[in-house]
Amino acid sequence: MTGLDHHQLMVEKARKRVRPLGLPVQIVHGNTEALPFADRQFDLVLSESVIVFTDMPTTVQEFRRVLKPGGCLIAIEMVLEQPVSQQKLAHIKDFYGVSQILTEEQWVQLFQKAGFPSIHSEKYDLQSGVQNVPDFSLSEDVDVKYFEMLEHHMIMFESTKEILGFRVFKCKTV
């Protein structure tokens, strides 16, 4: 099993978390837009709320590149559930720091364009997933601005729950 993160601090935290388990887990520092792995190396790629924060076509192409024939990408991503004004959409994109928010159909088209012939989409109920969140340890001396940011996120999340949703996309190679 291999984990990847773009932020070195998160790589270090993940390594520290898995070390006592004695499992064959490798944690790598890298970027989804230029994965540090050979072609056709993995049976499964799991990506949760990652693609939307990257150059999406490049990241999806990279995920496709590293999958073996018959491999599977499981991507959990934010989806625009209904049309909104350009002003509201710009506010949401600015808050989350993303360049675009795709509809379910647009996500499917993105995966198809990257060469995934089989794509299944399922709505993800975020509320039911919250109860199974594992414990995590905060870094020491977390700046109060990050707690304020989390509070703003919760307000944004509540105010956009009819506009934004999540989908689990299961994309298979051949």
Structural overview:
A four-stranded mixed beta sheet has the order 3-4-6-5. The protein has helices at about 10-20, 55-65, 85-95, 105-115, 125-130, 145-160, and strands at about 1-5, 25-30, 40-50, 65-80, 120-125, 165-170. With about 170 residues, the chain is α/β, with parallel strands linked by helices. The model has no long low-confidence stretch (mean pLDDT about 90).
Describe how the helices and strands are arranged:
Layout: E1 2-5, H1 8-18, E2 26-29, E3 42-48, H2 56-66, E4 67-80, H3 86-96, H4 104-113, E5 118-123, H5 126-130, H6 144-159, E6 164-172
Parallel strand pairs: 1-2, 3-4
Antiparallel strand pairs: 4-6, 5-6
Please provide a brief summary of the model.
With 174 residues, the chain is α/β, with parallel strands linked by helices. It is built from 6 helices and 6 strands; from the N terminus they run E-H-E-E-H-E-H-H-E-H-H-E. Helices cover 37% and strands 25% of the residues.
